[in-house]
Write a structure and sequence with these properties.
9 strands
């Protein structure tokens, strides 16, 4: 009777440990942004690789949001002819607290384990490491600092 209980407990522990490791790996793949700026009216989003090559590009447009929040989205498309990469970028902020912007992006079809960076109107915002399947995503809150 002890063997099944011990086996179940061991399997439960291993599953829990695996989930914890996966979460740490996912979070360590995201690099926090030290950037500040006013991206509320950003026009262009690009995703670049570690060498600065533009992999995806898109243009922001107003998206449907609720009454107290502004949401802008950019559909990201591969820049290389026949490229399979795709994704989107998003900027959100609340009307009553527009001094904090939530900026996020998600992509697929990029090279496995590549470090990719979201660039808004020429400013690096946040980076992430792609998974073995070529998927990456990151989200960061950025303080609004008006551009000179």
């Amino acid at each position: 009777m002890k063997a099944p209980v011990t086996t179940i407990a061991t399997v439960g522990f291993l599953v829990t440990a695996s989930i914890a490791v996966a979460m740490v790996v996912h979070l360590s793949g995201q690099q926090a942004s030290n950037v500040s700026g006013d991206f509320r009216n950003a026009s262009t989003a690009e995703v670049r690789d570690a060498q600065g090559q533009v992999l995806l590009r898109g243009t922001f447009a107003q998206a449907a949001g609720d009454d107290d929040e502004v949401e802008r989205k950019a559909v990201l498309m591969a820049t290389a002819p026949g490229g399979q990469a795709a994704g989107d970028a998003e900027i959100e902020y609340r009307n009553e607290a527009s001094n904090i912007q939530e900026i996020e992006f998600q992509v697929s079809g990029v090279p496995a384990r590549a470090i990719v960076t979201l660039v808004l109107d020429g400013s690096d915002v946040v980076s992430a490491t792609a998974s073995d399947k070529g998927r990456a995503e990151a989200e960061v809150k950025v303080a609004v600092v008006p551009r000179p």
